[in-house]
């Protein structure tokens, strides 16, 4: 493992009952990379994300992040160690305001205790002020600051996607996992999203791993791509290599008919 | 600091209500019957607000709140009657033991969700009741005699403290963490919130104030019996919270006061009392399916009036 490696996944796999959903996945992410994870429906992409974030416990293999073993950690511990994510089906806190959504992710920024909040001690006010300031700064970057008091559920779809990314960033990740960020977006919105991803990557010095079905987006911005099929990695390489890889074509389009 | 101005405004309003109540009582304008109703209102308010924190804010469907009420009532009664300590010590002791009971129940059961948690908490409350029923030291089924020590002052200020503490908790990073669990536990976890910690914390704080309510209740009734803490009592408290609107503190307060009043008034018609009470509940739920206040607070109503309703700017 070189000093630049941020995430190393070795032989990761999970079994649900008798079903081997994902097996033998090896993955290495270097600091600052933008890597794509693609594959047909049901290939195990989201399951892999869930293992990386601690939602599922891998039944085999090791996940090393930033020099620490992540196996068996709770999701909130994984997040605090620096991996943050968005969800395939948007999971915002619908009845909280846009600002409060980001504040929840900013939770660990302030340190005031429950008692300090109950008795309204000075640490409560300074902590809350710091969270407010920081959260507003995030909203501004994403152009959401004018909606800060709106309930999250009232935002238009594209804005909700943006808010989810803003919220994930507020948790101060080193590695950002994006699960189909462009799902349901029109071409213009997808274009904006690509620019946004490139921007936040530079601005926050992030490493990004993204799952996406939109091949224009994946081929356009990813430096490297992993391809999953039936729970196994079938290919790895640059977008050009992946585009011409016969195994990948087979997984997506089926076998060539030989007569 | 506009927010603190609003807080002081409410505090002054609360003190005025207290002052009026106290003046009426000391001038004998309202008799013992109404005095007792006022105190019952405070007790129900505490129960409603403390359960609101667990169900309305954190979204954990607990229906064993009467168990904590019983713990608070019996522990405080033991402290005053058997140990001869002052009432204020008894209130604190009842609350702390109830909170410990809350931790004891919360840590194993809060990993359950929805219906399963409801059944587990219900079972816990029944266990408490049956344990008390079988302890002769506290009188068993016959009950335990308790001197009348609760006054309007005790009832009012404990209720006021309950509301302030729970409102302060809710409007902080801790409260937001609890609400995020209610909204989406998986996302909340993924944002770095220790969900187990906050569920147990909300449960323990709720139990603490149910314990306070128990102490006030025990010293208001001359005798406490295990039968007063059955699951019907838990449902009464649940009704306050649901009727007020899940997630609305002011809703819980309003519905606790309103339903105490309705139920006391209906005592004049013993035959039809429960029928009318049920009808009131059904009507409210038909016309306000999200409860009296929905998830809104009284303060929101003033705000939206000033702004002239919600404005969408796209």
From TrEMBL, chain A:
One of its GO terms (biological process) is D-alanine transmembrane transport. Residues 7-255 form the ABC transporter domain. CDD domains: ABC_Mj1267_LivG_branched. It comes from the Bacteria. InterPro entries: AAA+_ATPase (IPR003593), ABC_AA/LPS_Transport (IPR051120), ABC_transporter-like_ATP-bd (IPR003439), BCA_ABC_TP_C (IPR032823), P-loop_NTPase (IPR027417). Pfam families: ABC_tran (PF00005), BCA_ABC_TP_C (PF12399). SUPFAM superfamilies: P-loop containing nucleoside triphosphate hydrolases (SSF52540). One of its GO terms (molecular function) is ATP binding. Keywords: ATP-binding, Nucleotide-binding, Transport. GO terms for cellular component: plasma membrane. This is ABC transporter ATP-binding protein. It comes from Metalysinibacillus jejuensis. The lineage of its organism: Bacteria, Bacillati, Bacillota, Bacilli, Bacillales.
From TrEMBL, chain B:
It comes from the Bacteria. InterPro entries: ABC_transp_permease (IPR001851), LivM-like (IPR043428). The keyword Transmembrane applies. It is a multi-pass membrane protein. CDD domains: TM_PBP1_LivM_like. It is found in: Cell membrane. The chain crosses the membrane at residues 7-27, 33-55, 62-81, 87-107, 114-132, 152-170, 197-217, 237-262, 274-290. One of its GO terms (molecular function) is branched-chain amino acid transmembrane transporter activity. The keyword 4Fe-4S does not apply. Its main location: membrane. Keywords: Cell membrane, Membrane, Transmembrane, Transmembrane helix. GO terms for cellular component: plasma membrane. This is Branched-chain amino acid ABC transporter permease. It comes from Metalysinibacillus jejuensis.
């Amino acid at each position: 493992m070189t000093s630049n490696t941020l995430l190393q996944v070795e032989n990761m796999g999970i079994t649900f009952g008798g079903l081997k959903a994902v097996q033998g996945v090896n993955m290495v992410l270097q600091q600052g990379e933008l890597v794509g994870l693609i594959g047909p429906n049901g290939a195990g992409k989201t399951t892999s994300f869930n293992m990386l974030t601690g939602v599922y416990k891998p039944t085999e293999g090791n996940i090393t992040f930033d020099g620490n073993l992540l196996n068996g950690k709770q999701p909130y511990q994984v997040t605090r160690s620096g991996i943050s994510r968005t969800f395939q089906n948007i999971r915002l806190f619908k009845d909280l305001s846009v600002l409060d959504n980001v504040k929840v992710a900013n939770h660990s920024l302030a340190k005031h205790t429950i008692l300090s909040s109950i008795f309204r001690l000075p640490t409560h006010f300074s902590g809350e002020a710091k969270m407010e300031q920081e959260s507003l700064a995030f909203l501004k970057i994403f152009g959401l600051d004018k909606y800060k008091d709106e309930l999250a559920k009232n935002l238009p779809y594209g804005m909700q996607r943006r808010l989810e990314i803003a919220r994930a960033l507020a948790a101060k990740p080193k590695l950002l996992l994006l699960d189909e960020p462009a799902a349901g977006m029109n071409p213009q919105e997808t274009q904006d999203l690509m620019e946004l991803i490139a921007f936040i990557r530079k601005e926050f010095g992030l490493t990004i791993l993204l799952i996406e079905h939109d091949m224009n987006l994946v081929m356009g911005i990813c430096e490297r791509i992993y391809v999953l099929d039936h729970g196994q990695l079938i290919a790895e390489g640059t977008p050009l290599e992946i585009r011409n890889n016969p195994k990948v074509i087979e997984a997506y389009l089926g076998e060539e008919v030989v007569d | 600091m506009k927010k603190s101005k609003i807080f002081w405004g409410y505090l002054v309003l609360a003190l005025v209500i207290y002052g009026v109540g106290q003046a009426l009582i000391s001038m004998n304008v309202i008799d013992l019957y109404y005095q007792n109703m006022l105190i019952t209102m405070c007790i129900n308010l505490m129960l409603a607000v403390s359960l609101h924190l667990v169900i309305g804010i954190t979204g954990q469907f607990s229906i064993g709140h009467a168990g904590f009420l019983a713990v608070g009532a019996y522990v405080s009664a033991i402290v005053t009657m058997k140990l001869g300590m002052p009432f204020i010590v008894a209130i604190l002791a009842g609350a702390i033991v109830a909170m410990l009971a809350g931790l004891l129940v919360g840590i194993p059961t809060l990993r359950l969700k929805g219906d399963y948690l409801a059944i587990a908490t219900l079972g816990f409350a029944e266990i408490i009741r049956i344990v008390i029923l079988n302890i002769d030291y506290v009188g068993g089924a016959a009950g335990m005699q308790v001197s009348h020590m609760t006054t309007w002052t005790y009832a009012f200020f404990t209720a006021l403290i309950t509301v302030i503490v729970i409102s302060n908790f809710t409007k902080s990073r801790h409260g937001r963490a609890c609400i995020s669990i209610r909204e989406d536990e998986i996302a909340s976890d993924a944002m770095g919130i220790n969900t187990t910690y906050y569920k147990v914390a909300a449960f323990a704080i709720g139990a603490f104030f149910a314990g306070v309510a128990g102490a006030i209740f025990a010293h208001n009734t001359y005798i406490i019996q295990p039968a007063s803490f059955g699951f019907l009592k838990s449902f009464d408290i649940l009704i306050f919270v649901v009727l007020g609107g899940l997630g609305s503190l002011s809703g819980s307060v309003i519905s606790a006061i309103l339903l105490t009043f309705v139920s006391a008034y209906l005592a004049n018609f013993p035959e039809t009392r429960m029928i009318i009470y049920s009808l009131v509940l059904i009507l409210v739920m038909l016309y306000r399916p999200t409860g009296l206040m929905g998830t809104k607070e009284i303060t929101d109503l003033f705000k939206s009036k000033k702004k002239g309703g919600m404005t969408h700017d796209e």
